[in-house]
Specification:
Alpha-D-Glucose-1,6-Bisphosphate, Chain A, domain 3, 454 residues, seven-stranded mixed sheet, six-stranded antiparallel sheet, alpha/beta, magnesium, A-D-PHexomutase_a/b/a-I, 4 domains, A-D-PHexomutase_C, 14 helices, isomerase, Phosphomannomutase/phosphoglucomutase
């Protein structure tokens, strides 16, 4: 009986519990199917520090080689390092990671040559269908020569490429605390930051996929507490926190206060626009702060609003030729990084911006953090559509209020807005609200929550 992969093949990647939901035998089939669907003659693979990652990655390589593709294994790497390899080598790629998920999980992030994303509509559904078809019999070997499997270290080249995209030559000495969360930041940060005038205070740099100190998910405020405390104790200029596969970076200022990813997006956007002669398109999703399009326009750029999610961001980056894109979740996308996301490059921009002047990070980001935001608030509901309809009815026709349906429902007025989006996988509605001042934000937030939860 063919395997049912509906629980592990998600919209943009493969992810599930090992070995309960998937194992090396399935990983080998995924490797074979990936080559068949992409028609690749060569692929590149990498993996994070989870105990199951090396075995899964090696099995995928066997499957790919069995279909005649030559495999370049770059071994331990961050997800953006795998994207670098896919772009620089112009090869389809597979990264073995479950990002910030607990230790028992693992997954595969797939891309075509040049780090172009693979999702349900761009090959992942076809890959799943082949794996299910072959799960009883195994993948048929391709007639002819089996592909080769070779190792290649790309860490130094990846670091050099990132540093070539940000001018760090004039920065002053800075003290930086970095919390790698026992994830891949512990592998990449020392090489990327080598040679810069930085005093680096490392936290949890030991690669350990069991995450003994805290989850490698800086989006949860509980996982920033250790970093915030250490920044204050050290009198550091800033702190950086990476998630498990080190493709996202969160920033805290010299007071240990989190810097909004929207403020980081605005800061990096202003620098990328300057780097491109004061012109260019910048993508932002619809729940980033209004600060972002304002700063983009002030710096000569064109803001482009899109739905939440990396597949939408990357598609708009490609369609518009955008120079940069940012999300509220601390994913940052760069045209000069094959439209892929790299938190490390965003971190270099923050270091450069801070190091080029004498003030504090909190003072620097004040100009980019202009509104009061609620953050994302999740509510369990019985009927997502009915609750959204109730919100629409409450605001439709109000003077000065506009509604739009780009992603969920966004309700906007002159000095506030909120968005309510349904989860695709759980009976949740996600609320994000923002206003010119804290009191207005609280009023709008509570009004929307009352409608969601009534």
């Amino acid at each position: 009986m063919a395997a049912d992969l509906s629980q592990i093949v998600k919209a943009y990647d493969v992810r599930g519990v090992v070995p309960d939901q998937w194992d090396e035998a399935l990983a080998e089939l995924f490797g074979a199917a990936f080559v068949r669907v992409t028609d690749a003659t060569a692929v590149v693979t990498g993996h994070d520090m989870r105990p199951s990652s090396p075995g899964l990655s090696a099995a995928f390589a066997r499957g790919a080689a069995g279909q005649g593709a030559d495999v370049t294994e770059i071994g331990l790497c961050s997800t953006d390092q795998l994207y670098y390899a896919s772009g620089a080598l112009n090869l389809p790629g597979a990264m073995f990671t479950a990002s910030h998920n607990p230790a028992r999980y693992n997954g595969i992030k797939l891309c075509r040559a040049g780090a172009a994303p693979v999702g349900q509509d761009t090959g992942l559904a076809d890959i799943r269908a082949l794996v299910e078809e072959w799960s009883d019999t195994g993948a048929p070997q391709k007639a002819g020569t089996t592909g080769t499997v070779t190792r290649r270290d790309t860490l130094e080249d990846y670091a050099a490429h990132l540093r070539s995209l940000v001018d760090l030559t004039g920065i002053r000495p800075l003290k930086v605390v970095v919390d790698a969360g026992n994830g891949m930041g512990g592998h990449t940060v020392p090489t990327v930051l080598a040679g810069l005038p930085l005093t680096l205070v490392p936290m949890y740099f030991e690669l350990d996929g069991t995450f003994p100190n805290h989850e490698a998910n800086p989006l949860d405020p509980a996982n920033l507490v250790d970093l915030q405390k250490r920044v204050r104790e050290e009198g550091a200029d800033l702190g950086l926190a990476f998630d498990g596969d080190a493709d996202r970076c969160f920033v805290v200022d010299e007071r240990g206060e989190p810097v909004s990813p929207s403020a980081v997006t605005a800061l990096v956007a202003s620098r990328e626009l300057a780097r491109n002669g004061g012109t260019g398109t910048v993508i932002h999703n619809l729940i980033t702060s209004r600060s972002v399009p304002e700063v983009v326009r002030e710096n000569g750029g064109t803001p482009e609003r899109t739905r939440v999610g990396h597949s939408f961001i990357k598609a708009e980056m490609a369609r518009t030729g955008a120079i940069f894109g940012g999300e509220h979740s601390a994913h940052y996308y760069f045209r000069d990084f094959w439209n892929a996301d790299t938190g490390m490059l965003a971190a270099l921009h923050v270091l450069a911006a801070l190091g080029e002047q004498q003030g504090t990070l909190s003072a620097l980001v004040d100009q980019y953090d202009r509104y009061a935001g609620s953050g994302e608030i999740n509510s369990t509901v019985d009927d997502q559509a009915a609750r959204l309809a109730a919100i629409r009815a409450a605001y439709d026709g109000r003077e000065g209020v506009t509604l739009d349906d780009l992603d969920g429902l966004t309700v906007s007025a002159a000095d506030w807005w909120f968005n309510v989006r349904p989860s695709n996988t759980e009976p949740l509605l996600r609320l994000n609200a923002e206003a010119r001042d804290e009191a207005t934000m609280i009023r709008i937030r509570d009004e929307a929550l009352a409608l969601i939860r009534q």
